[in-house]
Amino acid sequence: MHAMQYEITLPADYDMGIVHRRIAGRGHLLDAHPGLGLKSYLVRERGLDGSPVNQYAPFYLWRTTEGMNAFLWGPGFRALAADFGRPAVRHWLGAGLRRGPAADGPAASAPATATRQAERLPEGADPAEAVEAALAALPDHPGLHTAAVAVDPARWELLRFALWHAAAPDTVPGTRYRVHHLSSPELDRLPVGRHW
């Protein structure tokens, strides 16, 4: 599994309806993309949910590098870069995944919100221990849809990402987003638990 995100921060007076219409009109285009576990179309709006900025910040969990490459070098990302400029794309190696009650079974539902927390591992920290602790601390909550832990080994940055059926619990730290669409063609093929 590979985690990926880019953030497009927009002016404070930007009409976020443009982003909403873009997602409504184009979000379905990745609903069957090969190699894609999930793409959550994330939005932050200045003044909502404590956000200081307007931002479009989709987050991906890729099942295959071929799927990720097909997206990055294909027409979808080209169109985004043509409209907003080419954003820096962050990438993390997947370390673990948890599927929550809101993703499976009779309680399954589309996520409404997401949280993302990134932290640099201290110089003397054992990365394996930090990852194990993050995996053990993945939320076990009835409103959880999907949670992932990933690592950027170039920066030794640990990432925690979670999708929620409704508002994320107040006890969950991190940046908060609203989810405007979820493409999840191969979510059920991403391995749960530890990824090594």
Structure notes:
The chain is α+β, with helices and mostly antiparallel strands. 19% of the residues lie in helices and 35% in strands. Strand 8 and strand 9 (157-164) form a beta hairpin. The longest helix is centred in the N-terminal third of the chain and has 10 residues, at 17-26. The relative contact order is 0.25. The model has no long low-confidence stretch (mean pLDDT 94).
Q: Give the fraction of residues assigned to helices.
A: 10-25%
**Form type:** globular
Distance between the termini: 11 Å
Average pLDDT across residues? 94
Q: Number of DSSP helices?
A: 4
What tags apply to this protein structure?
196 residues; alpha+beta; Alpha-Beta Plaits
Short description:
The chain is of the alpha+beta class and 196 residues long. The protein has one domain: Alpha-Beta Plaits, CATH 3.30.70.
Write the layout of secondary structure elements.
Blueprint: E1 2-5, E2 8-10, H1 17-26, E3 36-44, E4 54-56, E5 59-62, H2 65-72, H3 75-84, E6 90-99, E7 113-120, H4 127-136, E8 144-152, E9 157-164, E10 175-183, E11 193-194
Antiparallel strand pairs: 1-5, 1-6, 2-4, 3-4, 3-5, 3-10, 6-8, 6-11, 7-9, 7-10, 8-9
